[in-house]
Design goal:
The protein is α+β, with helices and mostly antiparallel strands. Helix content is 44%, strand content 20%. It has a five-stranded antiparallel sheet with strand order 1-2-3-4-5, with helices on both faces. The longest helix is centred in the first third of the chain and has 48 residues. It is elongated and about 80 Å long.
Length: 173
């Protein structure tokens, strides 16, 4: 009677250990490949934002605020790239913002979000994001979208975060 309970438990435990080991092995094999692909996608996205850049280097001489996930400067001094994360209505909104040496937004895009489909997803729409291009830190004329106010205000705040860290970086130079 005791074996009726012990043997299945031992078998299931052994199966769990084997599967866990296989998953750990698979992760250790695929993780570097996934990270390399992600880095290549990020570099491609940055090059798309500032096509005249000869390359990008991370900005490491400044403590980045919590909202700034990454900061890069171009190797030929034609701009900066900021990856900014802010909270929207349904969760994190991650934005890429390119700012030129003149302090104006060159380009921007939403990298990822979990906003409500059809409402908050307006932050993916070029009609919304293109209004930032050419704007300076004042962001004059930028309008939040009625019905998606939280999402669009979060996006506007992401742009403000990018300008704030840019001012910090410029102050250190």
């Amino acid at each position: 009677m005791k074996n009726d309970f012990v043997v299945p438990i031992l078998v299931l435990t052994l199966i769990c250990l084997v599967v866990t080991g296989a998953l750990a092995l698979m992760n250790s094999v695929t993780y570097p490949v996934i990270e390399l692909a992600a880095a290549e996608r990020a570099l491609s996205a940055m090059a798309e934002k500032i096509p005249e850049a000869t390359g990008f280097e991370p900005i490491e001489n400044v403590v980045l605020p919590r909202a700034i996930r990454a900061a890069y400067r171009t190797k030929n001094d034609v701009g900066y790239i900021f990856i900014v994360s802010v909270n929207g209505f349904s969760g994190e909104i991650r934005v890429m913002c390119a700012i030129g040496p003149d302090g104006r937004i060159l380009s921007n895009s939403t990298l990822q979000h979990t906003e409500t489909r059809g409402i908050g997803t307006v932050i993916d729409d070029a009609n919304f994001t293109d209004q930032f291009n050419g704007k300076d830190s004042r962001l004059d004329g930028i309008q939040a979208v009625s019905g998606a106010t939280i999402s669009t205000v979060a996006y506007i705040n992401a742009m403000r975060e990018a300008f704030a860290i840019l001012e910090t970086i410029r102050g250190l130079q």
